[in-house]
Amino acid sequence: MTPEFVVDIGRKAVEMVLLLAAPMLLSAVVIGLMVSIFQAATQINEQTMTFIPKIVAVLVSLILFAPWMIQKMLAFTHGILENMVSLGG
């Protein structure tokens, strides 16, 4: 196993983590922005008001994107295992 191969796997792993986390992070950012605009418009400055909508948004996006995320993780794992087999044989 060459150092380039290991660095490539690490790079692909980081890209996969960012890709899989993106739907949940984006939904949390959008909900946070909407709650912030609502708080600014109503002048309600409650810090805990943003937590529940963000948690619900992340949970809903996790449920909606779970099949896609599992498919991506399985494809990534399958690709790594194929590369390992081809190196050994």
Account of the 3D structure:
This protein is mainly alpha-helical and 89 residues long. The chain has one domain (3-88). Helix content is 88%, strand content 0%. Helix 1 (3-42) packs antiparallel against helix 2. It is elongated, with a radius of gyration of 19 Å. It starts with a helix and ends with a helix.
Count of all domains: 1
Q: Helix tally? A: 2
Count of individual beta strands: 0
Gyration radius, rounded = 19 Å
Task: Specify the oligomeric state.
Answer: single chain
Average pLDDT metric: 91
Low-confidence stretches: none
Ends distance: 12 Å
- Shape descriptor: elongated
Q: Describe the largest sheet.
A: none
In helices, the fraction of residues equals over 70%
Which structural category fits the helices and strands?
Answer: mainly alpha
Beta-strand percentage range:
under 5%
Task: Give me the strand/helix succession.
Answer: HH
